[in-house]
Design goal:
Elements: E1 27-29, E2 33-35, E3 38-45, E4 52-58, E5 61-64, H1 65-90
Antiparallel strand pairs: 1-3, 2-3, 3-4, 4-5
The structure holds zinc ion (ZN).
Length: 96
C-alpha cells in the first residue's frame, strides 16, 4: 500500500493523493488505457464534499456513463461499416 487512502478511494483508483494541489487531489482516477493517441480513464470527483461522476475521461473530454455507452454503440456501428468497406475493397470493382 503505497498510496494514501485517507479520502476513501474506490478500489480502481491509482492516484497517489497528497501529491496534487487543491481540488485536483480529490479526484479519483483509474489507470490510463491508451488507444493510439487517446488516453482513457474512469474518474470520480470528490471535491466540495460531494461526489461527481463517475465519468469517463477521453483525453480532456468528460463523458457520463450514458454518453460512454452511446460512444460504444457509435464505435460498434462505425467499425461495422468499416469492415464492410474493407470487404468491398478486397472484391473486384464493377469495372474490372
Ligand atoms: Zn483515489
Amino acid at each position: 500500500m503505497s498510496r494514501t487512502a485517507t479520502i476513501g478511494c474506490p478500489a480502481w483508483c491509482t492516484v497517489r493523493h497528497g501529491h496534487l494541489l487543491g481540488e485536483d487531489d480529490l479526484v479519483h482516477c483509474s489507470a490510463e488505457i491508451l488507444i493510439g493517441d487517446l488516453a482513457l480513464r474512469l474518474c470520480v470527483d470528490d471535491a466540495a464534499g460531494h461526489s461527481e461522476g463517475p465519468y469517463v475521461l477521453v483525453d480532456d473530454h468528460e463523458l457520463t456513463a450514458h454518453e460512454a455507452e452511446r460512444l460504444i454503440e457509435a464505435l460498434t456501428e462505425l467499425v461495422g461499416l468499416a469492415s464492410s468497406v474493407e470487404h468491398r475493397v478486397s472484391e473486384p470493382g464493377p469495372g474490372s
